[in-house]
Amino acid sequence: xxxxxxxxxxxxxxxxxxxxxxxxxxxxxxxxxxxxxxxxxxxxxxxxxxxxxxxxxxxxxxxxxxxxxxxxxxxxxxxxxxxxxxxxxxxxxxxxxxxxxxxxxxxxxxxxxxxxxxxxxxxxxxxxxxxxxxxxxxxxxxx
Length: 143
What we know:
The protein is an alpha/beta fold. It has helices at about 1-15, 35-40, 45-60, 75-85, 125-140; strands at about 20-25, 30-35, 65-75, 90-95, 120.
């Protein structure tokens, strides 16, 4: 989670919402990404999507069933869909997102009958640091 938090910090420094993601395969980091929708002019450039794309390109396949995703914020519906389609084995995330999350909040994507793959889910890892980073980012913009 440390690397995901570092990526989130880099996103914040670039003016992006501070979310970072890391994909591991056999305990080795194979992809690291930060949110970049503004920089890339791409609304799909969430950290999870960017990390999944990087890992899939590196491995030369669309299925990442032997990979784990670590992300600093509960994934949104778009990212949860990508996680399911990529067949990510395990999802570890930091801060919960009652407003935009789709794992334990909102649509609870992985519990839907139309979801064909559900990763093992481990919430709350690094939650305090990830949450504070997000709160500070938005507080700074409101002031």
